[in-house]
Write a structure and sequence with these properties.
This protein is of the alpha/beta class and about 180 residues long. The protein has a single domain, classed as Rossmann fold, CATH 3.40.50.2020. It is built from three helices and eleven strands, in the order E-E-H-E-H-E-E-E-E-H-E-E-E-E. Strands 4-3-7-8-9 form a five-stranded parallel β-sheet, with helices on both faces. The chain has a four-stranded antiparallel β-sheet with strand order 1-2-11-10. The structure holds inosinic acid (IMP) and magnesium ion (MG).
């Protein structure tokens, strides 16, 4: 068994979710989308930076006409969620009247997504669906439904497959979780 501990800055992380399991979860979401959304010509809206790997792998598996665009905001510094959430930047497509599918790497407290939803509604998206690779149900405080969830996990802080700890660790193919010291 590969039990390689990795070090990022001051923290240690242990193997948590192998790429094979991630890939299965992504395929499951894609299968459901290929059923649900094949005639909706949706606009996928990936939230940078964390979701870039998930968005790419998911998009490979989508087999109907669609578009993708990338937007940015940030809610995290270090390992604790902060109350400051920046505005969505980079929406250049006209999303008025569009079926939008938000692609997020992880939903933790749900605050980030709440702000994204509010902004997309304000701009005038017709229908908004949410897809997240990872979901922390114990931390979630949102009142909105999450349409596509890849994997539910505990509250531990994780890195890899696009997710970072202070900008590092996004390049790992597998997901690692923090070792509390
Ligand atoms: P929320 O607003 O609390 O739902 O946090 C969502 C954002 O925080 C995600 O888009 C991630 O960028 C970041 N985040 C939440 N949990 C983790 C984690 O365990 N590792 C890395 N980033 C995380
Ligand atoms: Mg994110």
């Amino acid at each position: 068994m590969d039990q390689k501990i990795i070090q990022i800055h001051d923290k240690k992380f242990e193997p948590f979710i192998k790429f094979a399991e991630i890939d299965k979860a992504v395929a499951k979401i894609a299968d459901r989308m290929n059923e649900d959304l094949h005639d909706k010509k949706p606009l996928f809206l990936a939230i940078l930076n964390g979701s870039f790997m998930f968005a790419s792998d998911l998009f490979h598996k989508i087999d109907f006409p669609c578009e993708i665009t990338f937007v940015k905001l940030a809610s995290y510094s270090g390992t604790k969620s902060t109350e400051t959430v920046r505005q969505l930047i980079g929406i250049d497509e006209d999303i008025v009247g569009r079926n939008v599918v938000i692609i997020e790497d992880i939903i933790d407290s749900g605050l980030t997504m709440e702000r994204v939803l509010a902004q997309l509604k304000m701009i005038g998206a017709a229908d908004i669906k949410i897809a997240t690779l990872l979901f922390k149900p114990n931390s979630f405080k949102g009142k909105y439904p999450i349409d596509y969830v890849g994997l539910e996990i505990g509250d531990d802080f994780i890195v890899g497959y696009g997710l970072d700890y202070d900008k590092h660790g996004r390049n790992f193919k597998d997901i690692y979780k923090i070792v509390e010291s």
